[in-house]
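Structure request: Multiple sugar transport system permease protein, Kribbella antiqua.
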Amino acid sequence: MTPTLTAPSTTATTASASTPPAGKGVSRRTITLILLVAPCLVLVVLINAYPLVVAASQSIHNGTLIVTGDFVGFSNYLDVLTSPRFWTAARFTLIFTIVGVFGSWLTGMGLALLLRTKIPCRGVFKVLLMLPWVVPIVVSSTAWNWLVSTPTSPLPTLTAKLGFGEVHFLANPTLAAITVCVFKVWVSFPFMMLMTSAALAAVDTTVYEAAGIDGASRWQQFVHITLPLISRSTYISWILMTIFCVNDFPTIYLLTAGGPVDATSSLVVLAYRTVFQDQQTGPGVAIAFLMTLVLVIVSTALYRQIRKVDIA
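Returned structure:
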């Protein structure tokens, strides 16, 4: 008998033709995606990498914004780290960041919890609470200067009538630092309130009902239920607000310009003064790189805490 030959099925032939052999190059779809994304990646790298390389070069040279100057290695970093002005600015930056992060977080969280209750005109209340964050920082700083800058301003006049004497809020170093920190909390708490409100909206209310049946008080529910369930959002808001505070130039400069006697001069203000006023580009850029290093370390530590959070 003659053996019968069967033709291969059309489906198998099509599948084998469309499926690229394993280990023999990149698929056509992957190449297409790479070609589509490549222009954007190149543009982003050029926009970010070029200034970074130039700044790194300036930090190890003794020059100005126009002239690169002589190569000095890491002497600019050593000069910065041994400068009393740097450590004064670092101390204020630390205080400013801690107060800005946790002050705005506590205020925002308290208001977010309040907005979850049944209060009259809650929608109008939300809009009004957003104004410090929505209003441009120039307008806010101008309003605060009007409130506290001179002895005839409303707040110094009020303190004088209350018997505290003539209080100079922006002329006294301690009061100026306190005023700047309070101003930072004022302009930042709406952001924290939004972050916390979004996290609270995702919490299942039946958890609180079960805890109430088990006899848990409101404080116990807040500590053992609310805070753990919104911890991921909390850490993210802390990371973002830390970056905002360390890099915050207009809030400080528009209110006090870093004075009096460098009492409110943060690292970013000191870097600006060193580069654009003292014309010392190397030390100023070195300060900026040290700031970046600290921000990377703090952000990495907080990000690891996010990964450790278990809300199951």
